[in-house]
Specification:
mainly alpha; Growth Hormone, Chain: A; 0% strand
Length: 512
């Protein structure tokens, strides 16, 4: 048994470090234009700053399970923070794109380990009946950081330089490292764990994860039907197939498949994946909508998304505590329902929507997220034995990472598909037999209107400004309608997530 003070100090330190790791996934995006200008590179090259980090954080997760069993928790956590701090500073001093990408990989490998390490430590320090509240506080780092990132990144790039996007990590990481070294107890691995590391399984699993994430990240840029993406998909499939084939002959495989014999853990893994697809996909789309359609700056966009982050921070610990008391099942069901409803509230967004129309559904979504995160994570840990906690701590975040990558890719492609659909639909309606079309065209083609509107239409449309204006209006309506459809689809996926949530066994862990 650990003291209450020890538990709270450990939790604070873990949340602080996890927050900056998650922050790095969104804060750097804002600095990309400044990085391009400073290092003299194009967008295709600079995209790898994000891709390299995302792939590295996913690849490192499962090997951490072996490390925890072999040498314990304190040393890996301390090394993770140390290398993350050094690589963050190195990123800030980078003088070339290759140097920056290399240190981003190191940063991802060191920072990505905190998810399984942190979950394992919380599973060790907190009793089953306390884990809901602990996971609620831990979840603040995971869910609030993406909302805060654009605001902080925008302020830093406006008032300092892009290099401070990386330097800002160092003070928090250094303080966290000192606290971990002083406070965290010395520990060792499992005494009876004698297995060797599964290099074959790790190689094939990493191959599958890396190439599928590259495909998810590059699909929209390269084109989903391009040979580049098809090669990535084939290599990912090959890696996964080889992993399954060779793992049959490994005595201690990278992932112990026996964990999926646990009913609740299997169901919660499925729920976790559905939640990640819907939420991370829609959370990615919202900033794009605010910046591209509503013409807000990244900094203002971050401020608009702040209330959602505060709603998560306020609600997650509370619902986590209640989940400990009443069981997680009904909170997950209602969390999925509430989140789905909040996404449906965006069904009629337009360029005329007020800030309130955008913010209040995001607050409801934040409450729904707070209702989901801690019960899902605590159930994942509580459903397995103590010896299987390291595996559960690895599988939950890697599932979320892969599912969120798929969600972002799916919704980005869905957005493009719906935009083409509405352009075709509106194009069939607007023609030279349509009275409104003829009236607008006639008005804008008059000499006076030409002089008035020349400044706001493209050069290519100046020959026929009426058509140029109509074309712009049609594209705007098609784009807005396609965003609305994306939010509706995300809401539907959340409602689908209710089905496995209902199947979950509601187990209440009482204080012994």
């Amino acid at each position: 048994m650990y003291s209450k003070e020890y538990k709270n100090l450990v939790l604070i330190l873990l949340v602080a470090f996890f927050f900056i790791v998650m922050l790095d996934m969104s804060i750097v995006t804002i600095a990309i234009p400044k990085i391009m200008s400073s290092l003299g590179v194009n967008l295709e090259d600079v995209d790898w700053i994000m891709i390299a980090y995302n792939v590295a954080t996913a690849v490192i997760i499962m090997p951490i399970t072996f490390i925890i069993k072999k040498i314990g928790l304190k040393i890996p956590i301390a090394l993770s923070i140390t290398f993350f701090t050094i690589s963050s500073i190195a990123c800030g001093f980078a003088t070339s794109i290759n140097m920056l990408i290399f240190f981003r990989i190191v940063q991802g490998l060191s920072g990505g380990g905190i998810a399984p390490l942190g979950l394992s430590l919380l599973g060790k320090v907190f009793e089953p009946h306390e884990r809901g509240r602990a996971m609620g506080i831990w979840g603040i780092g995971a869910m609030a950081a993406p909302a805060i990132g654009p605001t902080l990144g925008g302020w830093i790039t406006d008032h300092l330089t892009w290099r401070w996007v990386f330097f800002v990590n160092a003070p928090i990481a250094a303080i966290t490292l000192i606290g971990i070294l002083i406070i965290l107890e010395n520990d060792k691995g499992m005494p009876n764990f004698k297995a060797n590391f599964d290099f074959i399984g790790f190689s094939f699993f990493s191959m599958a994860v890396a190439f599928i994430l590259v495909a998810f990240n590059e699909g929209q840029n390269k084109g989903w039907s391009s040979s580049y993406i098809h090669i990535c998909e084939m290599l990912a499939a090959l890696g996964f197939i080889l992993y399954l084939l060779f793992e049959q002959f490994i005595k201690q495989p990278l992932i112990d498949a026996k964990i999926f014999k646990n009913y609740n853990f299997t169901i919660i893994t499925l729920i976790n994946a559905v939640r990640a697809i819907a939420l991370f996909g829609s959370l990615f789309i919202m900033p794009v909508y605010l910046e591209n359609i509503m013409n807000y700056t990244p900094y203002t966009t971050g401020l608009i998304m702040m209330p959602s982050a505060f709603a998560i921070a306020m609600s997650a610990p509370l619902f986590g505590k209640w989940a400990d008391k009443f069981g997680p099942k009904y909170f997950i069901v209602f969390g999925m329902l509430l989140t789905g409803i909040s996404l449906f509230m965006y069904w009629n967004l337009s360029t005329q929507s007020s800030l309130w129309d955008i913010i209040y559904p995001s607050i409801i979504r934040g409450i729904g997220l707070g209702m989901l995160y801690s019960p899902i994570m605590s159930t994942g840990l509580n459903s397995v034995s103590t010896e299987q906690i390291p595996e559960a701590s690895g599988l939950l975040p890697v599932t979320m990472r892969l599912a969120s990558g798929f969600g972002i890719a799916f919704f980005t492609d869905y957005l493009t598909t719906r935009k083409v659909y509405y352009l075709t639909r509106y194009g069939d309606t607007i023609n030279d037999k349509n009275f409104s079309f003829l009236k607008i065209q006639s008005h804008f083609n008059s000499p006076g209107a030409f002089q008035t509107y020349t400044g706001i239409i493209a050069n290519s449309a100046r020959i026929n400004p009426g058509l140029g204006i109509i074309d712009g209006i049609v594209k705007m309506f098609a784009t807005v309608q396609s965003y609305d459809d994306v939010f509706i689809m995300a809401g539907i996926i959340c409602l689908i997530g209710i089905i496995p949530a209902i199947m979950l066994k509601n187990k209440i862990h009482k204080k012994i």
